[in-house]
Fold these 2 entries.
Entry 1:
Amino acid sequence: MLVYTTENPCATFALGKGLAALLEPGDVICLSGDLGAGKTLFAQGIATGLGVSEGVTSPTYTILQVYDDGRLPIYHFDLYRMEQPDQLFDIGFEEYSRTDGVAIIEWADKFAAQMPDTSLWVELKMTSDEAGRMITMHPKGARYDKLCEELKLVADTCLRHGHSCI
Ligand code: ADP
Ligand code: MG
């Protein structure tokens, strides 16, 4: 488990961007946290880090947005409005989360039982001063243990130098 505190939105973005550099085909990032916790911002950081040029928005109304002009394709899910686990099958969740791209899933905790057994869970929580976020990474599986070890080496640098939301 790895815990970071980001003091502003750009730091959260920068941490996502730093993580992106370490991602490999097939990686799955499950995001949890309340509305406004920073899940989309973190996903935007990942997308920017992967070189996606179009603006990444919250896919709340579409459930899935695909970005395929970066280093790896991104399948960005937002399960906020999804009601039944069956709907995951309707949108092809199984296939998308087992391809050569990176799956990023907002509100993954709503359907935790349907998420892949191995993945990186990232939990975002507002701190008491409301400007900060506590970001906890829970690796599930050897691939994600390794990813967290790698992130440890670069995260402090990202958080120190990465304070710009681009
Ligand atoms: P979610 O997708 O979890 O609903 P968003 O990423 O859309 O959340 O929104 C997070 C909001 O919180 C943004 O308006 C952002 O500017 C604000 N915010 C304030 N401080 C932080 C922080 N430290 N990290 C991330 N977001 C923050
Ligand atoms: Mg969101």
Entry 2:
Amino acid sequence: MKAMIVVGARPNFMKAAPILKAIERHNQASPAKIETLLVHTGQHYDAQMSDAFFADLNLPKPDISLGVGSDSHAAQTAEIMKRFEPVLLKETPDVVVVAGDVNSTIACALVAAKMNYSSGQRPLIAHVEAGLRSFDRSMPEEINRILTDHLSDILLVSEESGLRNLEQEGIPRERVFFVGNTMIDSLLASQQKADESPVLRQLGLNDSGSTKPYALLTLHRPANVDRPATFREILEGLAELRQQMSVIFPAHPRTQKQIQESGLESYFAATTDADSRIRMIKPQGYLDFLCLMKNAQMVITDSGGIQEETTGLGLPCVTVRENTERPVTVEEGTNLLAGVSREGIRQAIARQRNPSKTKKPVPRYWDGKAAERIVEVLLQQVSARLAQAQPTA
Ligand code: UD1
């Protein structure tokens, strides 16, 4: 079997890494080898947004780099499609594995769905993290999720809400596999290495072995940072917290650009935590960020993945959004939806300062073994497809 694994943007890397490792383990144990090809679309390309993750997650160098870079949604998606099509035609994998909800995910799934190899076949499409829905179609990611799921042959679901959503959309049950969360596989596998990160010392957060209380903030969604009035409202919602403890803010390149363009610089400081400004630092690598998360009093975020990681860690999380496509993090985990009004955010932070429950049960199959289940499903589905394609004697 030949599997092509596609990555493109930051949140893809930690979802793909455990699958590649699980394939490696399979290949060591079984004579039926799986050949892999890692394709990086280049949607994220910076040292900080991409290279650092390859190093931290021990990802092999991509076999194929499409080098698309940044552009508008349409131009970026189209460019990925144009560059991916000849690669697929040349390599003819049995299965293309895409993850999450970024533009690279839908672009490559769409090319694979319309592919026609000279054999008359096309590859199977496997979607890691299928079935998540925010029910908010103004989010580009929601469009990417829905379309990718409807193009996929193998839908690999990370939480139970995904099963319900796919059933409601009429996706045949035999295509759907509840395997768990590969992002949590990476989290569990990397905890020890994250503990060795020097980042707390480097930021002056750890003096002679004791960690100063701080909160960790990330914001990058266009809906939150592209409109100055909304962005300012969110920063005002943090006013009380900023008086109580340092707020450390690794800022995404999109967010850094918006801060400059919207004149919001006065909320931020580069180094000092002597006043109540937010301490802005560059985007962090995977292990340094994990270390910052593990030691924080709470995390405030608009990211999807961080909602899951904080639940995996049992750490209070305030999500600065009106909805979440990951409801298990609220229902079973440690996440609280705050909305984007300053009062909503203030209240959510106050509640999370004194969480009613601390250690919560971890959602089903968030056990570090999702990638192993995925490899089993891929093997099963590809062999079934090959058996079907064999002419009967
Ligand atoms: C993308 C995903 C989003 C995900 C996020 C994680 C889509 C639709 N969105 O959003 O779901 O949560 O990644 O980061 O795919 N830039 C750099 N260096 C890079 C990459 C981007 O400076 O390596 C800058 C560029 O100015 C670019 C902007 O960031 O225009 C946005 O990048 P883009 O990939 O378009 O979307 P993200 O906001 O990163």
